[in-house]
Structure formats: structure tokens, C-alpha cells
Task: inverse folding
């Protein structure tokens, strides 16, 4: 008899390049490890506010380190993340609430597109940085890039301001906080009756060890 699959929840926000790294690694390993990977799009700004955390790039020395670190990790994990000092300020000023509401609408109605749409947002945020900023985050354009029809994308865009979508994103963000999250990515493994929280994209070997992979 096969062992029961371990539920692994990934709380992420496309504003976070480290979330992208963790997302891609877990996407690869979901087919190798005995896990059920559940994507939980949440709002990093809400987690930061609730826990008193601040974006790491706000500390100049840490921002310097992050630029090098993300570049190294992108190369190691073969994720096409490109990042400059300007990107931090641009992304922080834009925020990701609209993008995460759009992704939440996808999760609620077209979950089969959740992975490609999330990836397409990350590509826009953290890879195709030379594109015009106004076009950069346009959800319709991102959705089409991920394979949705114009009609499907428009329906999703119409949902973004609905109470159902806003409440779902708020609830998912609150779930992450209840598990102890203070930043992203936050990975929660449900194993042997316990919940194990891992923060960051560099704790996945530890996750594997805890769940017996």
C-alpha cells in the first residue's frame, strides 16, 4: 500500500523573487516527492503589516547582498530572474495587490491556469524588466501569455474587485499568518499530524528531510 501523500502548501506573492525560486523548485519536485502541492496565493503586504516586518531591500547593505544572492540562486535553480537596484524601488512602489487579486480569481475559477499565470506574472515582474512599465503588469496581457482566451481573461479581470475575491485573498493571507509566516515564500508541510513551517527558498532540502524525501 502506497504511503499517504504529504500536503505541502506554498504561500506566495509574485512581488517576491524568492517566492518565484521556491515555486519553480517545488513545481519540479511535486512529480518526484510523494507530496500534494497546493498553491496558496496570498498578499505579502498584508503579512508584513500584520507581523511588523519590512521589505529586506529597505536596508541598503542587505539590498546590495540581495542583488547578488538572487542572481546566484537564479543561475543555480535555472530560473530567469533578472534584478537591479531600480527594480526593488519600482516593485515596492507598484505593489502587487491587483496582481494577487487577479491570481486569486484564477485560483477560484480556473485553477488549471494558476501555475502558468503565476509564472507569467513573475516573468513580467522579475525577468522582462525592459518592457514599458504600464504594460508590464497588465493582467489581460499576462493572462493571454499564460494561454487564457481574451474572453476568459476579461471575466477574471471583472472579478478582481468583487467581495468574493477580496475575501478569499484576505483569508489566505490570514491562514499564512496563523501558520506563523512573516514573509514569503512560506511553505507549510502537514506531516505526522504536525504543521512544519519553512521560510524562504533555501530551506527546501530541510523540508525534504523532515517529510522523509
Result:
Amino acid at each position: 500500500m502506497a504511503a499517504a501523500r504529504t500536503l505541502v502548501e506554498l504561500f506566495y506573492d509574485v512581488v517576491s523573487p524568492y517566492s518565484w525560486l521556491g515555486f519553480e523548485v517545488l513545481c519540479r519536485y511535486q512529480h518526484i516527492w510523494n507530496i500534494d502541492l497546493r498553491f496558496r496565493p496570498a498578499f505579502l503586504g498584508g503579512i508584513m503589516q500584520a507581523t511588523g516586518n519590512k521589505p529586506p531591500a529597505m536596508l541598503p547593505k542587505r539590498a546590495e547582498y540581495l542583488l547578488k544572492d538572487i542572481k546566484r540562486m537564479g543561475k543555480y535553480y535555472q530560473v530567469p530572474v533578472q534584478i537591479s537596484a531600480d527594480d526593488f524601488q519600482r516593485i515596492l512602489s507598484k505593489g502587487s495587490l491587483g496582481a494577487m487579486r487577479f491570481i486569486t480569481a484564477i485560483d477560484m475559477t480556473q485553477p488549471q491556469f494558476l501555475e502558468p499565470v503565476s509564472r507569467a506574472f513573475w516573468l513580467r515582474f522579475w525577468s522582462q524588466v525592459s518592457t514599458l512599465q504600464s504594460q508590464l503588469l497588465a493582467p489581460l496581457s499576462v493572462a493571454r501569455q499564460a494561454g487564457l482566451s481574451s474572453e476568459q481573461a476579461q471575466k477574471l479581470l471583472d472579478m478582481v474587485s468583487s467581495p468574493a475575491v477580496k475575501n478569499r485573498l484576505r483569508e489566505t493571507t490570514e491562514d499564512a499568518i496563523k501558520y506563523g509566516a512573516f514573509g514569503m515564500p512560506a511553505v507549510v508541510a502537514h506531516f505526522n499530524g504536525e504543521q512544519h513551517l519553512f521560510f524562504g527558498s533555501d530551506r527546501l532540502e530541510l523540508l525534504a528531510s523532515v517529510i522523509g524525501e
